[in-house]
Design a protein that fits this description.
mainly alpha; 3 helices; 54% helix; globular; 0% strand
C-alpha cells in the first residue's frame, strides 16, 4: 500500500509522470517495471529510475527556458512555502 501524500502541482500530471517513469525504466533495461513489486527491488534500481526522471524533467525545463518560455516554466513549478513550527 502506498503511503505517499505527494500531490502533483498540475491536475493530470500523475499519469504523465507515471508514463515517463515506465519509459525510463524500459530504457534502463528494467522490463515489466509497472507490474513489479517495487519493495522487492534494491533501492539502487528505484533510485536510477527516479534520478533519470529528475534529469529529464530538468532538461525539459532548461530547454523551455532557453526558448523563452519562462512564464510556462514558472507557472508549472509552484514553490512550496516553508511551514512554521
Amino acid at each position: 500500500m502506498a503511503r505517499s501524500t505527494n500531490q502533483p502541482v498540475k491536475a493530470g500530471a500523475a499519469s504523465a509522470l507515471d508514463q515517463m517513469k515506465y519509459e525510463i525504466a524500459n530504457e534502463l533495461g528494467i522490463t515489466n517495471y509497472q507490474q513489479m513489486d517495487k519493495g522487492q527491488l534494491p533501492s539502487r534500481v528505484n533510485g536510477y529510475v527516479g534520478g533519470n526522471m529528475t534529469k529529464r524533467l530538468v532538461a525539459y525545463a532548461e530547454q523551455a527556458l532557453s526558448q523563452g518560455q519562462q512564464a510556462q516554466v514558472t507557472q508549472s513549478a509552484q514553490l512550496e512555502t516553508p511551514q512554521q513550527q
